[in-house]
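Researcher: I'm preparing a figure for a lab meeting and need a structural model of a single chain. I don't have an experimental structure, so a prediction will have to do for now. The sequence is pasted below. Please return the structure as tokens so I can convert it later.
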Amino acid sequence: MNNKDNNKEYEVINLGYEYPGMKGGIKWAVITELDSEMLIEKYGDELSMFKPFVVMTKAQGEVLKDYDRNEAKHRMRRVRTCSLDGYVEGETEYIYSVFSKDEPEDIVVQMDEVECLRKAVETLTDIQKRRLKLYFYNDLTAREIAELEGVSHKNVLKSLNEAIKKIQKYKN
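Model: Understood. Here is the structure written out token by token.
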């Protein structure tokens, strides 16, 4: 939950949502430069629904956001370099060069896989198709796509993740 849009002096994040598997009784973090007493004095009523919560400085909140961005970057790197059938960039080509003689059956299987992928991509929305193309073929980052389209970074990440999940489900 982002309260920056309301010109508040704090931002509330759901730790359970941002960090799945997190254990403990505190589910919310309030990121602010105000000290705890001033925060409660100014916004106690608004924040009462989030109790118990932990108060973090903006610098601490930025560390959490950096971690989240880094995890997303590595998750997408894995998606870019691995396929659903166990493709690993660099290794798979070597293994195929040693063991494969491009038998006719292999060519047919590859053609079937390409056709399956084409059909899966057809199920995506126009926005998802455009963003996947920019991401995978034009090597733009999610931030660059967001800047290009004038939308939020999280919006682009969500769209890309949903598109990839849709394609993965289609193959199964």
